[in-house]
Amino acid sequence: MHLVKSIATGLLLAGCVLASAVPKPAPSHKIAPKVFIVSMFEPEAAVWWKIPEFDLLAHNLTVPGASPIYPDVYCTADHSICQLITGEGEINAAVTVSSVAFSPLFDLTHTYFLIAGIAGVNPKVATIGGVTFARYAVQVALQYEIDIRDLGPNYTSPYIPQGAYSPGQYPGQIYGTEVFEVNAELRSLAASFARTAQLTDSDKAKAYRAKYVTDNGIYKAGTQAPSVVECDVSTTDVYFSGTILDDIFDNTVQVLTNGTGVYCTTAQEDNATLEALLRAASHNRVDFSRIIVMRTASDFERPYPGQSAIDNLLYVDQGAFEPALQNLYNAGIKVVQGILDGWNKTFAAGVKPSNYIGDEFGTLGGKPDFGPGTTIARKEGNALKKRGVAKRGRRL
Which GO terms describe its cellular component (predicted)? Predict the structure, then answer.
């Protein structure tokens, strides 16, 4: 997404809707929402306000530890649906979600979390304005980085996995936040609900997609009208652009998911949010099998043929920012309604995953289908010897 436009839109919206939420005392009982919408900044959040289906601003509750500019959780009158705004970036997301997950105000043991934000998109897999649902979230920039000009001709990437010696190797140092896997059955259910939505588009976005037409059809998906796609999300606080970096991070997703993940969207917060929810789940405060990661595409993460990476990142208006925001609601409301309508029959008891869910350490039990296995992962995570790093006096 384009930073300048994001900030400008946020400033225009700031205060106009938040002011309508009337502070009320915290209830005497714990709030147990059926759905918790996780937004990252105000434009993403505002598409859920003043909608005909429900009023998220019926209650607003201040949560200690939440973002200083988004200190409140918003809920419907019956508290069945709530929303938090994390603030942008990994640190904001981790602290805000942890604060809510461990807050004594809530009972989140049966709550479904709908992470709903905008993102950049890989035109090899999906298109601007489209809606994506992830099974894997991969922290792609948790690597060594050396300017490519300092590496010499033997390196094609400025990124080297931590604890490794060349690009493309599996990391030898594992932090545990590199990859998260969520419930694939729930993802497919959410996608099926979203496919009933009528998605918004724009004439400018339609014209911009046409620039990705190539003779070999490599960007065919990017030239299509918005649709719902099941593919995976990358996490990094760095806004990046250009086919070189995009292909590098595509390869990172492949390596870290043992070839299973399909890289399609670029976001800042998802691994941080999932780590916070995983830690809460390890204390039986949330159910990690009840997480949906939905990202709508506000921009292509790489330039069209002949365009510069800097133009793609900073200057061009792709015409998809507003449609992507609107499609958070258009698709997301179908997911929320699907959960509520099917609560007694399906969702109260939970959607049992057939795949592994969790992190590389196997924190919640089970055997990860990515990584070197929990024994090696935990050993690498606890290792004092960081493959030569300590010898150079670097931080352990």
Answer: endoplasmic reticulum
Q: What does each C-alpha distance from 165 to 216, 352, 389 come to in angstroms?
A: 34, 40, 11
Are 125 and 264 in contact, with CB atoms under 8 Å apart? yes
Residue 331, beta-bridge partner list: none
pLDDT band of residue 28 (cuts 50, 70, 90) is low
Chain-wide mean pLDDT for the chain? 90
For residue 375, pLDDT over 80 is answered with no
| Residues with Cβ within 8 Å of residue 214, at least 6 apart in sequence | 305
Place of tokens 């545990």: 176
What phi and psi, each to the nearest 5 degrees, are found at residue 65?
A: 95, -10
Contacts of residue 177, defined as CB under 8 A and 6 or more positions apart, other chains included, come to 139, 142, 271, 272, 275, 359
Phi, psi of 27 (to 5 degrees): -65, 160
CA distances from 88 to 10, 37, 330 (A): 12, 15, 22
Nearest to 190 by CA among 115, 100, 110: 115
C-alpha angle with apex 357: 353 to 359, nearest 5 degrees? 180
Instruction: Compute the average pLDDT of residues 270-297.
Output: 98
Contact 324, 297 (CB under 8 A): yes
pLDDT of 323 over the 50 cut = yes
User: In degrees rounded to 5, what are phi and psi of residue 164?
Assistant: -110, 180
Q: Is the model's pTM score more than 0.85? A: yes
Report the DSSP beta bridge partners of residue 198. none
275 in Cβ contact with 301 (< 8 Å): no
* Residues 67-89, mean pLDDT to the nearest whole number: 97
CB 106 within 8 A of CB 280: no
Q: How far apart are CA 121 and CA 313, in angstroms?
A: 12
